[in-house]
Amino acid sequence: MNKLRSLTSIVTGLAIAFGSAAISPSASLAGNATFFCAVSRGTPATYARTARGNVKIISWASNVFGSTYSPLQRCVEVSRRFQRNYDNGNLRTIKTGFIRGYPVVCAARTQDSPCSDRTLLFTLNRGSNANLVARRLLDRNGLAAGAVIYESSCEEDCALSVSVDTFLENATTSEEDVSPVE
What we know:
This protein is an alpha+beta fold. It has one domain (34-170). It has 5 helices and 8 strands, in the order αβββαβββααββα. It has a 5-stranded antiparallel sheet. Strands 1-2-3 form a 3-stranded antiparallel sheet. The longest helix is centred in the N-terminal third of the chain and has 21 residues, at 2-22. The chain is globular, with a radius of gyration of 20 Å. The protein starts with a helix and ends in a 12-residue tail after the last helix. Keywords: Signal. Residues 1-29 form the signal peptide.
């Protein structure tokens, strides 16, 4: 009888532990986002599927990045990079920076984390203003949703930083029914 009570106590304790871990207050509302590329009204876009619905993050409407990748190819590749960095815990912030002299947009754990090959989301053409491009690419509904962009008070080469959790929690969800493109 004591063994049965002990076993019941252990099972109950494990259930409580796992249950409370699943609803931890430190967990973000963005929670288990899944990033994917879909075509919306003829334009490829990177989306995040959240508990609230699909959030459009970036519309790939132009060939401004050159002819090496079509907007659809870029969308698919960048969406994969978003997902990989999210899975690795690096996608807490989207920020701008430089890698090997090229302006880039990358994932970061904090606003102060440097961009690296491992956290690279996409590269821009030399001479591009990464902050301006990031502002234009990131869907306006998300940026208008709240104070999600941070810029340091420097004169030049300031890094732009966007809180991913705040963006996903406040951005307007898409009314369209979109399906991932592979």
